[in-house]
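EI: anyone free to look at a 481-residue chain?
SC: sure, send it
EI:
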Amino acid sequence: MTVPEVCELGLVDLRTAIAARDVSCVEVARDHLRHIDAVNAAVTAIVARPDPDAVLAEAAERDAELARGERRGVLHGVPQAVKDLVEVAGQPFTAGSPVFASRVGVVDAPHVARMRAAGAVFVGRTNTPELGFGSQTYNPVWGTTRNPYDLARTVGGSSGGAAAALATRMLPAADGSDYMGSLRNPAAWANVYGLRPSRGRVPHTPGFVAQLGEAGPMARSVADLAALLGVMTNQDQHADRGPVGPLDRADPLDLEALRPADPVGLRVGWLGDLGGRLATEPGLLELARGPVDVLAGLGAVVEDVVPAFDLDRLWEAFLRWRWWNACEMAPLVEDPALREQLKPELVWEIEHGTALSAREVSWAGTVRAEWYAAVVALFDRFDVLLAPATQVHPFSAEVPWPAEIAGRVMDTYHRWMETVAPWSMAGVPVLGMPAGFTPDGLPVGVQLIGPPGGDRRVLEVALTHEAATDWSARRPSLVVP
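SC: here you go
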């Protein structure tokens, strides 16, 4: 894979080059479009691509604005592709489902509107599993997104298209979303960063229920991650008064002033496999512990920890939150013609959701509140927590999900990702970051977990780790057919 020089630039460097007029917005768009033409067929990361002439015309408008002394913002002239679970005005909005294969967006989702206002030039959508369910990015509309480090394997999901596009330098940064690790799992398997922000940090479609999904940025460096977060974020720290992770606990982000955290005396808790609870592929825990050892070598104080909480009870509550979230799709299973177009895992989620009782939902809310209190107490002891981002290494792209891990049978299609679920339930910031590679060159990642509202803290600790390792500078030696 030969990468054009401008495509090697991350968001911050590309923004600087455009602002300095070292490169025009048209040149940036042209080189990215050519690179996408050359690489995308191998990985299927960017889908629903618009007419390239329209993209170049939009880039020319950005150049004309610069010539008039007008600069929209951080993304002025920067190519972007929004995850295909999010509505974008005038663009295909399939969510990877044949049911919505012909749907076109009418309005911009809140964070997309911010990206557009900041000057982004949209070059397509990024691929996702059908309706976002599952940590393997495949669907009958666009096909399977493959791992650039090994095209026979998955890159995870549900932000798999975004992760693969970043790894192959088709995008300098990308948005994603995360309900059950959808920013963390593909970041781990593509050797990039993905931040699930604190509950409410990035504006949502209005609603009163604090569901578990959060939109967030993905990038190849912590600085690029912070730059895109600054575009997507809700800077009004009192905007969210939800019951979980209220932002009035948080310090203002001030992302322009980020500095690496002082590692000396930093209190780090290592969660590992939660005391043997989680099934893990042999050798994974040792590799995932790498960032813990790095921070310890820099002066951090590390302690193994298992939260004092009934984690079986937490998992059962998580299932009910997820089923409740699926209830809005009930019409898709009530119509036999639509139902037969859905993958079985999605039907399973919806049917369980429609069978929920009010008592079960109330119970799940109680468990979630108790878990949140337990997590807050953990951060009286620790500054950050670290955990594996996955329980297995990238598996075959032809396999929907691992049926077993190390001889332990998975009782649901997503049990193999249980490592991420507790932190979704808590609504705390979690940063997926690179942790190194297996002996055969597959990326490994971890979750860096912060307290409620502690987005800045996880970014600063990630900067410290990045400076000591710089794993993400390594890119796949993809052989393009």
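EI: The longest helix spans residues 358-381.
SC: 👍
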